[in-house]
# Entry
Amino acid sequence: MGFPQPDTGAVTEDAGIVGGFLTATGDINFGPFFNNDAGQWTAETISGAYGSTLVIDDDGVWTYSANNANASIQALNTGETLTEVFTATSTNGTSTITINGADEPPCFVAGTLIDTPNGPRPIEDLRAGDQVITRDNGIQRISWAGSRDIQLGIGSKFDALQPIRVSKGSLGPGLPDRDLWFSPMHRLLIKDPTVSLITGSNEVFCAAKHLVNGQTIVKETRSNVCYHHLMFEEHQVLVSSGCDSESFYPGAIGLDGFEDETREEVLGLFPELRTLPDNYGRLARQVVKKHEANLIRDHFTPAQVFWNNLIKRAA
# Structure
């Protein structure tokens, strides 16, 4: 006689969306030795907390769906997660299905120029061991460099990962000094004086997607994109075309966004992350909340910039 075994699943914010919903599937079983559970589960639909449901049939096959537009899901920052636990009932007792919801790993788009001691270099040319210039800690060696080609476009489960274009001068005079492209959750360092009024900090990280204003910072449409990651012994602030932004942060959520081979490559370099992902250390800066990001976005819209400059001239 077997006993109901727990099961898990995962979804990623803005990725793999079907009809506006994030989905995951699985098959909960009996165990550890006897697993003939056909017809032994209670077929039902269970409501979750994030516009979500879990539908399970009498064989234990389940499907989870969550509304990607749910405010709690969209408020996730890198390194944060939401967890839902559902109780499934069978003839041999109950078990749990745990769903972890996360955001996608932050990345640079191929072609981004990264400041190094030998001048700006395309990110795709950088390798582990190469030196780059960091904002806080001077010259640092890259511990790991990775990349991933993603097919985008209508029908692609990754279409929500379309890159964000940050136009020249959209974050202030000369910031950046050329157009840049980032993945939606790549965090930029915002240093405008208004930031301290909004957040209480002089410098903060804000995800690129939260800065989209439809004019100078926009979500582009591509058929494919190559995203690159740079990781260091500690979380760093990198400089690209005058714009400061983060290096890869390998918390549990960041690692979960990678395929198995890539994740194992990172864990081989940082084995302590295998059991204790938080051992990597702290984020280089405070991350703004969604409502703070909205205020920062509005501050950088062209119309608001125009009025701010007009007021300064009149003062």
Notes: The first helix runs from residue 71 to 74.
